[in-house]
Amino acid sequence: MTKKAFVLPIAMLTILGAAAPAQASTVYTFTFNDEYYVSSLTTFQSIFGATATGYSAAGIYQETNTATPTITRLGNGSGVPGDYQQNTTPNATDELALFGWTQSLNNGQQVANVYNLANPLNGAVLYFHYTVGGTTTPFTFNSFDLRGAAPTADLDFTLEGFLGGSLVDSAILDVHGNTFTTFTENWTNVDTVEVVSTAGLPVNWGSGTLYLDNVTLNNSPEPASIVLVGTMLVAFSLFLRKRQIRGGNDSYNLINVTSTKR
After folding, report:
1. Which residues pair with 171 in a beta bridge?
2. Which residues are bridge partners to 114 per DSSP?
3. How far is CA 8 from CA 65, 228, 249, 254, in A?
4. Contacts of 99 (CB under 8 A, 6+ apart)
5. Mean pLDDT for the chain?
6. Could you give the CA distance from residue 154 to residue 160 in angstroms, rounded to a whole number?
7. Bridge partners of 157?
8. How far apart are CA 216 and CA 28, in angstroms?
9. Is 61 helix (H, G, I), strand (E, B) or coil?
10. What pLDDT shows up at residue 223?
11. Rounded to an integer, what distance in angstroms lies between the CA atom of residue 160 and that of residue 252?
């Protein structure tokens, strides 16, 4: 029986994967401050310009493209359904979609941040998605800013990250006072971030007790080099399997198997 030492430079594959061009990814920060509640054409044109078009009825409007410019109506009423990333191609596709968040807005008032309309006590009702063209899409959740409604605010709750309905990340957050604090999570591969509460965590939940601003995410859920190297290793495994089948009793030694996470 002949024993062959089959040494494939897997380390080289890893280097190639690490050196390969990264998958296109963009960090977005959704600030809500390019949105306004508008209930008249006169107010619409006073905000977006005398020649601006796109007004149809009362609702939240956002300038989604500053070059054209293009004004997009997000929804009716003064509730804030989300925030589009400006100047994406095609227009008005990349969105932070909000569920259970609102603002109390008068005609012409700018959306500076949002607060909870839904009470998250004992329910999964206060959350946000990242969507592309209306489709919920995995992303890396970097951070967001939170504050309470008053200097005496003391809110403790569970923050959960889901992928395809399965829980993948969670953290207990403590929000104190009415000054925005940045909470950094850096959760990869989530498609929903949700505020969850129980009867004792926290107390005194109510509408307008939690404020949200500056949601930062990366639209690429995984580093591209990891995906590329993983694909190479799977292909190499299949290659070895075929060689073993063809070679009968031949065996192979694998050395220098490394992996680099970037």
Report:
1. 159
2. 212
3. 51, 17, 19, 7
4. 118, 125, 126, 127, 128, 129
5. 80
6. 19
7. 173
8. 6
9. strand
10. 53
11. 45
pLDDT digit string, tens, across residues 29-67: 999 999 999 999 999 999 999 989 999 999 999 999 998
Determine contact, residues 3/244, Cβ cutoff 8 Å: no
**Separation between Cα atoms, residue 10 and residue 211, nearest integer Å:** 50
Tokens of 229: 């190297």
Interatomic CA distance for residues 66 and 72, integer angstroms: 11
CA distance 166 to 152: 35
Give 211's Cβ-side CA count (13 Å radius): 21
pTM of the model: 0.76
Q: How far apart are CA 251 and CA 213, in angstroms?
A: 59
Q: Are 155 and 193 in contact (CB under 8 A)?
A: no
Which ranges in the chain belong to alpha helices (H)?
10-19, 41-48, 224-247
**Tokens encoding 62:** 């956002």
What does the block give as tokens for 48? Answer: 């977006």
pLDDT tens-digit profile of 80-111? 999 999 999 899 999 999 999 999 999 999 99
Asked if residue 72 has pLDDT above 90, the reply is: yes
> Residue 213 is encoded by which pair of tokens?
């601003």
CA-to-CA distance for 210 and 201, rounded, in angstroms? 14
* DSSP 8-class letter at 24: P
CB 190 within 8 A of CB 141: yes
- As a whole number of angstroms, the longest Cα–Cα distance in the chain is 89
Domains located in the chain, CATH noted? 1-22+223-262 (no CATH), 31-222 (2.60.120)
What is the length of the chain?
262
Instruction: Name the one residue in this structure whose structure tokens are 């607060």.
Output: 115
Tens-place pLDDT, residues 131-172: 999 999 999 999 999 999 999 999 999 999 999 999 999 999
